[in-house]
Write a structure and sequence with these properties.
CATH topology: Maltoporin, Chain A
Largest sheet: 22 strands, antiparallel, barrel
Distance between the termini: 56 Å
CATH class: Mainly Beta
Shape: globular
CATH superfamily: TonB-dependent receptor, beta-barrel domain
CATH architecture: Beta Barrel
Structural class: mainly beta
Number of strands: 43
Number of helices: 4
Strand content: over 45%
Number of domains: 1
Helix content: under 10%
């Protein structure tokens, strides 16, 4: 164990001792809800429990925070940093979110990318990236479960889970409608209507409409197109029918749709300067200069059924779900116009070595899942659950490369390379877990799951008949198959030191199934001429150890939950993005070591005033002495004397050459998109005015330095990000009006980059402001 982690555990113990020395006075639940921090109920172990009793590091994102961060039409990426150790980013915009917990994630931008953070939406896993972007609306709660969750939730959860639970139908006639209007003519409208259906059921209809005008100008030599990019229309709808024909039999039927049409991610050429950190003086949030296309669309549909039969001692639960999706996203990846082989006045901004414009499509995605679970009922010392799970996915992907040839008239070029991928994935799981109360103070939990995964993959690269083959020759059909089976498990012990202080320790083993990467428009820089560019990563396994304290004190006006953890990720699946070409390459690292701390706190010192805070420290380190990757792209010798596009700080194994990237060692590096520090905090104050309350809410999120890629350089990183919001409103339970502002300080931070062509940046969202109104009944 490292000295740094030993110091972290010592800090954990010190804070824990302090909390134990200040036990809370007993209060009934009603008083606690009214005057204190309240009780938070979570379903982290597939049953409803007080968050203080769950031996897992878990954060529940409350409704106030969700309402604040979604006010200006934000998508699911707005959850980034709203819980300790959680980061969300995307190089596709609203289409394709990438989640990271405790530094573990995946920067892969292919539509079949595997991620170590799983999304579970109403007990259904969402595997494909376009499903993970489903909008957040009419939501009861969002839970972030940190650490391996391989027993109850299965494969591809070595980092953790983000769990969404929607509001279910109830026997009451109720509903709400709310709308906000803000910057860039942004409209964010949400509504739900719940109505009883006789004496045996209820129907709930809910929907969301988000739209925004284009607001980013496109500046080209041929003239400026005002308000060319940045707009979107995103529509989602959910219908739920709850039927209870008898007291012990329940059926919940759900149908959901989403339709998104708008602007893809904006790439900004040469907004970094070689040898310097941070965005340069060329950066202007309101303008870009691109000569390629930019658009994206997503449509998804879902049908699901949950059937619950109460047999007395146990309940039998069946969850069946089918998702279908289609998507398209095209962008000018070089982030500029023209190319270096054209006259200087027809290329820019800065150096554009060659044009890069690609489109990725999902013509069809079908995902079917079935779970059958048995769960014990009753209040005895033993509780248990177990079941079987089946997953099947059919996925087709098409990637197109365009030959824009730096057209100064902004005419789209033709498709000259086409890559078609087909993937069939199947998974089977058999699981069981139990909790046993040894005494009134001491309980143990344990569980295990058998996982069996297989994947068949086929890819074809061809040239469009209207255009010559560009750099790459057509390939015949290339196939790969991978499969694996393994056991994942967890065990924990919980000790109630007092009525208000719980101590726990947990060890867990998680697993990510093997992956295949075949977006071979251009094979990776390390591929030889005889290789086809298709790469495979074997299964990764993680063993995680954590210990924590969960406490309430000060007459139930304060809550502090603290966790310390350490993990070993073996055969870690990593994605080498970019380098010398627009490609991904899968590799397995021998080991990734991680350790850190996570803190969740709430404080209600007086009636009407509440504070929340979250803090995490996450250290990650790649441990593989022989692991290398291509660094930033190699460019023409007359552009940069030493050839490399960026200032590499890693040991160079093979120097760069003209049009060939340097190969560098990444042993000892942190993982990409893995800041050491993440913090969030909120403050809310309210006081009576008339028949309601005036409230002021402010929320903030900070993350420390991140690297964008597996290798490290001066340019492709961001020192820090700090975003805050504020909301001032009046609410009487029936009517609410408010004004809000997001990114108050107009923080300008790079969140990712493109390294195979030039010094291209992707940036965070701008400051926005607006007004909000709601009615509830």
């Amino acid at each position: 164990m490292t000295k740094s982690f030993s110091r972290l555990l010592a800090t954990s113990a010190l804070i824990g001792a302090t909390a134990t020395a200040n036990p809370a006075f007993a209060q009934d639940e009603g008083a606690q809800e009214e005057t204190g921090v309240g009780t938070i109920i979570v379903t982290a172990q597939r049953r409803s429990e007080d968050i203080q009793d769950v031996p897992v590091s878990v954060t529940a994102v409350d409704s106030d925070t969700l309402a604040a961060v979604n006010a200006s039409g934000a998508d699911i990426r707005a959850l980034s940093g709203r819980a300790p150790s959680l980061i969300v980013e995307s190089s596709f915009g609203r289409t394709f979110p990438r989640f990271y917990i405790r530094g573990l994630g995946n920067t892969d931008f292919d539509f079949n990318a595997s991620q170590p953070v799983s999304l579970v939406y109403d007990d259904v896993v969402l595997e494909n990236p376009i499903l993970k972007g489903f909008p957040v609306f009419d939501m009861q709660q969002v839970e972030v479960l940190r650490g391996p969750q391989g027993t109850l939730f299965g494969r591809n959860t070595p980092a953790g889970i983000v769990k969404f639970d929607t509001v279910e139908p109830s026997s009451n006639l109720e509903g709400y409608a709310q709308v906000s209007y803000g910057s860039f003519n942004n409209v964010n409208a949400e509504a739900a209507f719940n109505v009883p259906v006789g004496d045996v059921g209820a129907l709930r209809l809910s929907g969301l409409v988000q739209r925004q005008d284009n607001w980013v100008d496109n500046v080209l030599p041929s003239g400026t197109t005002e308000d060319a990019f940045g707009g979107y229309t995103d529509i989602a709808f959910r219908a739920q029918l709850l039927l209870e024909p008898t007291d012990n039999f329940e059926i919940l039927l759900t149908g959901q749709i989403r339709d998104l049409d708008g602007t893809a991610r904006l790439f900004r050429a040469n907004n970094f300067t070689r040898g310097q950190e941070g965005l340069n003086a060329n950066f202007d949030r309101d303008t870009v200069s691109v000569d390629g296309q930019n658009a994206q669309s997503v449509t998804t549909q879902n049908l699901a059924a949950r059937v619950t039969l109460d047999l007395g001692a146990v309940s039998v639960i069946s969850v069946t779900s089918f998702w279908h999706g289609e998507s398209s996203s095209v962008g000018d990846v070089d982030g500029g116009f023209g190319a270096n082989f054209l006259p200087p006045n027809l290329t820019g901004p800065g150096q554009i070595p060659f044009t890069a414009e690609t489109r990725d499509l999902i013509p069809g995605l079908d995902q079917f899942t079935q779970e059958l679970r048995i769960a014990s009922n009753g209040d005895g010392p033993l509780s248990y659950q177990g079941g079987i799970f089946f997953f099947s996915e059919d996925l087709s992907i098409r990637s197109d490369n365009f030959s824009t040839l730096g057209d100064p008239l902004n005419q789209p070029g033709g498709v000259n390379i086409v890559v078609s991928q087909f993937q069939q994935s199947d998974a089977f799981g058999l699981f069981g877990s139990f909790t046993y109360d040894l005494t009134e103070q001491l309980s143990i939990s344990a569980g295990a799951r058998y996982n069996d995964d297989s994947r068949e993959f086929e890819v074809v690269r061809s040239a469009d008949s209207q255009f010559p083959v560009f750099l790459q020759n057509p390939l015949g059909t290339v196939t790969r198959e991978v499969s694996d089976d393994t056991i994942t498990w967890d065990a924990s012990i919980t000790y109630a030191a007092t009525d208000d202080v719980n101590l726990y320790a947990r060890v867990a083993r998680g697993y990510r199934a093997p992956s295949i990467q075949g977006r071979i428009l251009f094979p990776p820089a390390t591929a030889t001429p005889l290789e086809d560019g298709v790469t495979v990563a074997g299964s990764e396994t993680i063993t995680s150890y954590e210990t924590g304290i969960k406490s309430t004190f000060w007459d139930s006006r304060a809550r502090v939950n603290l966790t310390g953890y350490i993990y070993d990720l073996n055969d870690a699946q990593l994605t080498a993005v970019g380098g010398n070409v627009n490609a991904n390459r899968l590799v397995n690292a021998d080991n990734v070591r991680g350790y850190g701390l996570e803190l969740d706190a709430q404080l209600a010192p007086v009636d009407g005033l509440t504070f929340t805070a979250g803090l995490s420290y996450n250290h990650t380190e790649i441990q593989d002495a022989g692991l290398t990757t291509a660094a930033c792209g190699g460019v023409r010798v007359d552009t940069f004397p030493d050839v490399s596009l960026c200032t590499i700080t890693d040991p160079i194994v093979t120097p760069a050459a003209p049009f060939a990237a340097a190969i560098v060692s990444i042993d000892g590096n942190s993982l990409p998109q893995a800041p050491e520090w993440i913090a969030n905090w909120t403050a809310r104050y309210e006081f009576p005015v008339g028949d309601g309350d005036v409230y002021l809410l402010t929320d903030w999120y900070y993350r420390s330095r991140i690297n964008f890629f597996l290798y490290e350089s001066v340019e492709f990183q961001d020192a820090s990000l700090l975003e805050g919001g504020a909301r001032l409103g009046w609410d009487n339970g029936t009517f609410e009006v408010a004004a809000f502002v997001r990114n108050i300080t107009d923080d300008e931070s790079a969140v990712s980059g493109i390294d195979f062509n030039n010094l291209t940046a992707m940036v965070n969202e701008p400051r926005t402001y607006g007004v909000f109104a709601a009615v509830r009944f």
